[in-house]
Design goal:
One of its GO terms (biological process) is translation. Belongs to the universal ribosomal protein uL5 family. The chain is of the alpha+beta class. The protein is 33% helix and 11% strand. It has a domain of 154 residues: 2-Layer Sandwich (50s Ribosomal Protein L5, Chain: A).
Length: 347
């Protein structure tokens, strides 16, 4: 294979007999050389692809790969998965394995990505390294580790049923909070998905309000929003549990970064007398959220370009939920602040 790569493209189309003689001559001359370094340079400088004669019409017509394939006596071995990969993965020890997702013949192959968002490129080139520098905590070697408080409570042993029983959770906390981990090169926080949700209680009496909300989210994200049901009764608004009054959608990957980029550089600067996002937002596990009023939703370029399409009195608000790989709200705010999201107040 190494000698075939050295010849030019026009020489590759020569008959196999002529090509083998030429390769044999090149190989014999190289092997017989006493000075390997000089012989390598001589081969590169002396031979040129311009000196190879071009093929004529007769030689081009004689080259018929389809005829050579038809004359082949033994074809490819027959297989059940010769043209299509298996539909089910039967384990890593099965003789038939599914191809990788990057293979075009794979069933879960997704073409792309076809673009690299500016905000994501900035994150990969600048923000990721800056986060490690800002969050670096130097611990000298030999420093004793601090003892962490117990997150789960032991049983007092007053009953024989307490033996071999699992520990209890902390008082007043139905869900155990996530332990904050130091930022290293292994766990740099990043955005995984963004969920847009719009609650339209007026849609219970008039379904056109829900249609406007779905059209708005479709224009902002490019994905078809799904409908959700209410999970509580609100007597003031006439909302009953189980009615369809919510529409939401989730975007991932490059689409999430592009939406956040539009919020930072196109929507936030246009909001008048806006302090920013309250620093108290977050669920304690690195996921942040904020909301847009109906007037603020009109500042998106997708809404401005088709503003007559959305009735002003039917324009709903929207809540933005950003899910990150951070293990605390402090790290998530540090990530979004480095991207340009303003925060005010203290946690």
């Amino acid at each position: 294979m190494a000698t075939l790569r050295e010849v030019t493209r026009s020489a590759r189309s020569l008959p196999l007999s002529q090509l083998s003689r030429q390769a044999y001559a090149t190989c014999s001359r190289r092997c017989a050389s006493s000075q390997a370094a000089e012989a390598e340079l001589d081969d590169l400088v002396s031979e040129s692809g311009l000196a190879v004669p071009q093929l004529g019409d007769a030689e081009k017509g004689a080259f018929r790969p389809w005829k050579r394939a038809a004359d082949r006596k033994l074809g490819l071995p027959s297989s059940r998965y010769q043209y299509h990969p298996p539909k089910y993965n039967r384990g890593q020890f099965h003789p038939i394995q599914s191809p990788l997702s990057s293979d075009p013949i794979a069933r879960d192959f997704v073409p792309g990505p076809f673009n690299l968002p500016r905000l994501r490129q900035t994150y990969q080139s600048t923000i990721a390294s800056d986060l490690m520098t800002l969050a670096y905590n130097h611990i000298p070697p030999g420093t004793p580790q601090k003892e962490q408080a117990e997150r789960l409570r032991e049983w007092d042993g007053s009953s024989p049923y307490h033996k071999n029983r699992s520990k209890r959770g902390p008082r007043g906390a139905p869900v155990l909070p996530v332990i904050e981990r130091n930022i290293t090169f292994r766990n740099i926080p990043e955005i995984t998905e963004i969920t847009l949700s719009s609650y339209v209680p007026k849609a219970i009496k008039d379904q056109d309000h829900l249609l406007v909300a779905r059209t708005m989210l479709l224009a902002l994200t490019g994905t078809t929003p799904e409908l959700a049901k209410t999970n509580a009764n609100v007597a003031q608004w006439g909302v009953q549990k189980g009615q369809r009054a919510i529409t939401k959608t989730t975007i991932y990957g490059n689409a999430a970064y592009e939406f956040l980029d539009r919020c930072i550089h196109l929507v936030f600067p246009k909001i008048k007398d806006w302090k920013g996002i309250n620093a108290t937002t977050g669920d304690g596990s690195g996921n942040l959220a904020w909301g847009f009023t109906p007037e603020q939703m009109q500042l998106f370029p997708e809404i401005e370009v088709n503003y007559p399409m959305y009735p002003a009195k039917m324009m709903p608000g929207c809540k933005i939920f950003i899910k990150t790989t951070a293990t605390s709200d402090r790290q998530a705010q540090l990530l979004l602040s480095s991207m340009g999201v303003p925060f005010y107040g203290r946690k």
